[in-house]
Amino acid sequence: MNAIGWPNWRRLNQEGIVFAIAILLFAAAAIGLPGFLTADNLVAIVRSVSVLGILALGMAVVIIGRGIDLSAVAIMAMSVAWYLQLVNTGTSDGLAFGYVLAGVLAIGLLNGFLVAYADVPAIFVTLATGSFVFGYVRSQLITQDAVPVPGGHWVELLGGVRFLDIPVEVFVFAGLALLFFLFLRYTKWGRFIYFAGDNPVAARNIGVPVRPMLVLRYMLSAFVALIAGLLTAASLHSINTRIVNSTLLYDIVLVAVIGGIGLSGGRGGVRNVLVGAALIGILLNAMTIIDIPLLYQNLIKAAILLGAIIVDGIINPRDEQTAQQGDI
Amino acid sequence: MKLFRTLMAAATALAVTAFAAPSFAADDPGPAAYAKSLNGKRVMLVPLAMGFDLAQGWAHYLKKEVEAWGGTFETRDPNWVVDAGAQAITDAIASDTRPDVLIIHAPDLNSYSKLMKKAQAAGTYVLLVDNPANFPADAFVGSDWDKLGQLEAEAAIKGCGENSSKKIGLVQGDQANSSSLYQYAGIMKVLEKHPDFQVVAKPDSNWDATTSRNVTTTMLQQHPDICSIIDFWDGDATGASAAIRDAKLDGKVFLVTTGGGEKAADCDKLQDGTYGAVVMTDLARQSGDMNAIIKFLLQSGQPAGTSHTYIYTLEKATTKADLKPDSCWDLKALQAEAAAK
Question: Which pTM value belongs to this model?
Answer without folding.
Answer: 0.80
